[in-house]
Amino acid sequence: MRSPLVELFLLLARRFPIPGAYSSNVGIWLKFEVVLLFRTITPNGVTVRSESMPGRRKQRAHIKFTLNGEQTEVAFAPHKTLLEVVREDLGLTGTKHGCELGECGVCTVLVDGQPVLSCLFLGLDAEGRDVTTIEGMAEGGQLHPLQETFADLGAAQCGYCTPAFLLVAKELLEKNVNASREEIKEALAGNLCRCTGYIKIYEAVEWAAARMRGEHTEPAHESIYGFDV
Q1: 168: CB partners within 8 A, 6+ apart
Q2: I need a labelling partner for 28 at 20 to 30 A (CA). Which of 16, 179, 191, 203 fits?
Q3: Which fold has domain 145-225?
Q4: pTM, entire model
């Protein structure tokens, strides 16, 4: 799910590439600045204030939204993505930086219950929305079944991509707790993992789904201990 501003940004990125080292980070920052220079409409409820700074003026956006079930207010530089706002301004570092180009899926969060790439989602567009990060997945000190099965099966290795996989799988099972292996693969296709072969991730989602259905099942012996030789 991309906002119109992100679509404009991607168009600019394709039409006016910036060559050289660190081009992706520099290019993203500059192109977001171009979008903001020409932006004439801000989301309802967003306030953008100019603050006096020595030798220049600094703009700060102020938004209100729901974050992990709690009403939240935050002020930040208007060019920031939701990924940057969540990590840098709100201190929730479970959402990870990856490619920052919308290719790896490691920055995925849920916005109004739908997976979005927070590296391509402007913080301004979170106004009035319901955002869930990995920090909000457990409830009342109780891990979500997906978190339990990922841990029990060793579906996470380095763990860097795991928050995104968990949130996407959560959205899938909330819609369809009887998801097939193919449906799980399709749902997770936008998330890359450089450590695992994905099999344990699929098995962990299937096991969590069984638990959510109230079934008392155990994973295959080889899923935990490997094959006997």
Answers
A1: 105, 108, 115, 187, 188, 190, 191
A2: 191
A3: DNA polymerase; domain 1 (1.10.150)
A4: 0.77
